[in-house]
Predict the 3D structure of the following.
Amino acid sequence: MTSTPELITRLRKLLNEPIPPGGSEEDTNFLDADIETLLMEAANIYSAAAAGWTMKAGMLQGQIESYTVGQERYDMTGLKDQLEHALTMARQYADMAKISGGSIILKIMPPEVL
């Protein structure tokens, strides 16, 4: 599929990878070139999103899951939960890609009438 600025922005929204205000594409997990590649290799935006979420799942790393300061305890989302969420999103968009028929443009020429 052909990449356009609008599709890049839309795919960033689907991947939850917006460019932060005052930031740049360097502040996200995907550069615009990565987003363009996802779009070029996909049949539609949903299959691009599925591939992107699968890539995001591969980028996840283990982090501190909880810590305590005095009597306060802070719990973070665990790696297993993050991975499950990313793969669920990938499956969701893959399913949407299957039912999205896409679109085509046809040009119809009227017949010449004598």
